[in-house]
Amino acid sequence: MGFIENNQATQNHDEPWVTPETLIDVAHSIDADINLDVLATDMINQTYLNQVQQDMALVDTYNVSQTPSIMVDNIKLDDPFDYEQIKRAIEQKLEER
Fold first, then answer.
1. Mean pLDDT per 10-residue segment, the chain (97 residues)
2. Sign (positive/negative) of CA torsion 52, 63, 66, 86?
3. Is residue 74 situated within a structural domain?
4. Which positions are tagged coiled coil (predicted)?
5. In Å, how far from its chain's centre is CA 15?
6. 25: Cβ–Cβ under 8 A, 6 or more apart, which residues?
7. How many domains, in total, are found in the chain?
């Protein structure tokens, strides 16, 4: 049984289940070049907490509902994958300056 199947079968959905230990297990189970000791230390020490809090503040401020999201001059574009929309929005803002 794989990590996801095992986790779904054993987790209690009423309690937090994403812990440093489960994240280390996930990192260990995938084929990636991850230093598990550094990962564990960073999670325990909350090394990136300030950056995460800043990102969460931006999510609230700009009503971000998906990633990626594209903002042009503080305006969220409807489709972050529509190159023409992105290009038009940038060109429009440049013309306004």
1. 55 76 90 90 95 94 88 90 96 93
2. negative
3. no
4. none
5. 22
6. 3
7. 1
**If DSSP states are collapsed to H, E and C, what string results for 25-90?**
HHHHHCCCCCCHHHHHHHHHHCCCHHHHHHHHHHHHHHCCCCCCCCEECCEECCCCCCHHHHHHHH
Residue 77 forms part of a structural domain: no
Task: Give me the pLDDT at residue 9, please.
Answer: 52
Question: What's the CA gap between 3 and 7, in Å, rounded?
Answer: 6
Q: Residue 56 has what pLDDT? A: 95
What range does the domain containing 21 cover? 1-47
pLDDT attached to residue 4? 58
Asked, for residue 90, whether it belongs to a domain, the answer is no
pLDDT of residue 47: 97
pTM given for the model: 0.59
Q: What is the DSSP letter of 97?
A: -
